[in-house]
Amino acid sequence: MADLALTYHYCGKLEKAEKLEEEVLRLRKRVIGKHHPHTLTSMANLAATYHHRGKLDKAEKLGEKVLLLRKQVIGEHHPHTLRSMGNLAMTYNNCGKLEKAKMLHEEVLMLRKQVIGEHHPHTLTSMANLAMTYHHCGKLEEAEKLEEEVILLSKQVIGERHPDTLTSMINLAMTYHALGKLEEAEKLGKEVLLLCKQVIGEHHPHTLTAMGNLAMTYRHCGKLEEAEKLQKEVLLLRKQVIGEHHPDTLTSMANLAITYHYCGKLEEAEKLEEEVLLLSKQVIGEHHPDTLTSMNNLAMTYRARGKLEKAAKLEEEVLLLSS
């Protein structure tokens, strides 16, 4: 059962994975006990699935619990404990708790280099995750340098077509974009999207991330028609694959709304941004950085449509929540 749940997870069938993992965890607690290493593995797997399904509060709570138990039961330096630290750091990152994420990622990377070596695939994962957190913290040059190193090592250690190598390529393309290196971002974005479709399939969540990122690059290159077309496709697929209320689906909605704005489709932009803001407050909370960004985007659209009072009210709310 546990192996099947893991396979569901890696195939992107997250709802099936979650249901089966919850059942496995209940059984293991009853049969072998709450503190048995296999029970802790089930907890860790379920926390990871919660994370990927956008249930970040559940993921954080369960991730903190399993990390504490693993430190007590199998020790602080055990590879499974380090994996739990890395997963929890990723959850902190997605919750917008960037300082916590950065500190934990740096600790995991240091320990993995000591325990399993610099070129171990799990060490490369830690490097990639830390680079992503650097990106979210605005440390783009550090992110770029680390991501380029990760890709070089990943190609040598696990191969060019390994899913983790593809994820690193997706992240580097996003960093190139953020640094304004749009030509490099578009070239790498197209390459990795093609590889993702071939290796992990067209509907895999990582493939959809690659599609969304490429669409954003198209928009910033002024290729608005290509951007809008690809973003509509991504949004439709994300609703089908990961659900309408998943944070990544909300990101796709927000990005499409921005493209509508750039295309001068202000009414469509306003309608979609209002929907995104309402859902973001419910799903990730009103203080989350992405929610604040959605508020700013909607205020900008209100202003462009001459709804100045609404824009001012929303901008005041952003200032209050940010302080």
UniProtKB/TrEMBL annotation:
Annotated source species: Collybiopsis luxurians FD-317 M1
Protein name per UniProt: Unplaced genomic scaffold GYMLUscaffold_59, whole genome shotgun sequence
Pfam families the record matches: TPR_10, TPR_12
InterPro entries assigned to the protein according to its UniProt record, in alphabetical order: NLR-like, TPR-like_helical_dom_sf, TPR_rpt
